[in-house]
Fold this sequence. Notes:
Helix content of chain A: under 10%
Radius of gyration of chain A: 13 Å
Strand content of chain B: over 45%
Strand content of chain A: over 45%
Number of helices of chain B: 0
Largest interface: A-B, 27 and 25 residues
Helix content of chain B: under 10%
Number of helices of chain A: 0
Number of strands of chain A: 11
Oligomer: heterodimer
Order of helices and strands of chain A: EEEEEEEEEEE
Largest sheet of chain B: 7 strands, mixed
Shape of chain A: globular
Structural class of chain B: mainly beta
Largest sheet of chain A: 6 strands, mixed
Order of helices and strands of chain B: EEEEEEEEEEE
Amino acid sequence: DQQVKQNSPSLSVQEGRISILNCDYTNSMFDYFLWYKKYPAEGPTFLISISSIKDKNEDGRFTVFLNKSAKHLSLHIVPSQPGDSAVYFCAASARNTGNQFYFGTGTSLTVIP
Amino acid sequence: EADIYQTPRYLVIGTGKKITLECSQTMGHDKMYWYQQDPGMELHLIHYSYGVNSTEKGDLSSESTVSRIRTEHFPLTLESARPSHTSQYLCASSPRRGQGSPLHFGNGTRLTVT
Lengths: 113, 114
């Protein structure tokens, strides 16, 4: 049973516009959420995180929003750049799972120049 | 910059062979993990370790084994490779200081068993 879901396998956005990547989770005990970026033939790279005590965290062009009641988080990239083209994974963990991370299936973002 | 190293990057091997995938990190992290990922699928945790001489199986059943004799080294071994083991294997580490620390990943080993 998949606890973290990314329902959009792919997304295309024009350069300069906003990219919004979505993630849903089912385990209400998750209290730490992360986004990773992955280029082909490389390992995932940590991008940004948020704990459940916050509803927003911002780092430069990247902002993560957390809606605990809806069990939903999103990653906003503004403005999108061609170098942002990659696969984005969301992940979640909870203290009661020994801090193990559960990953979504990823969303492939293509930023069109 | 790669503080966590995986070798080999690519491996093609015949059925029945024994293989060891290497993973080393230079960050002094206590926690280390092995994930398996197939294209379009989520990362599945197959093994983890919280320190020297500590190893645990993850959620995904795996025929592989791991060892943690040194903090920096966390190799994964398949005693007899099968085509069903064809996948990408990702090693990761994080510091012990509890939750709130992201995983650092290596570049992975893409294994093909013929």
